[in-house]
Amino acid sequence: MQRASARTFQDLIVWQKAHPFVLVISRESSEFPKSEVYGLTAQLRRAAVSIPANIAEGFKKRGRLDKARFMNMAQSSLEEMRYYLILARDLGYVSRTDSMEQLEEVSRLLGNLCTSQFELLSSPGWVSVSVPASVSVPASVSIPSICAVFVRPSRGPDSDADSDPDQTTRYLCRGSLEAYTRAILASAS
Where does 9-121 sit in CATH, by number? Predict the structure, then answer.
């Protein structure tokens, strides 16, 4: 059975799970000590709101690369949230694990969505290039604007078991491979 395509970001299951998570975090953090209003409370709420906000913004982006980038930013905010919840628990501000369970569900759904975005980037028209992680393109090297680059570490739970931990995968338009290669070679010399 095939599901209908999402027409708005609100149709995305991951957004439907992330939004209530923000509401739970808002309620839980309202119980934090007043001394944390401008500290942990503000950081926690900002990171929580950023998850569904980036999902919503990425949904409307037209390019595959932009969509993947915003979903990846949502993942980054989610990991930031994971730390803040650990910190809040260790400080004794929260004891329930409801929010952590919700975070895990959103993490799983968002991970699946990001995986599908990465697969789209690997489709014809894109090329993935593995280079040493230490190699970066200095700002002084001019790369044409068509050279869209998306960087993903080649290590971690989503990577292949036999991938080199010192490599970084960069996705870019096939047409800009030559310009990107020149920029990398120029930075290495």
Answer: 1.20.1440.60
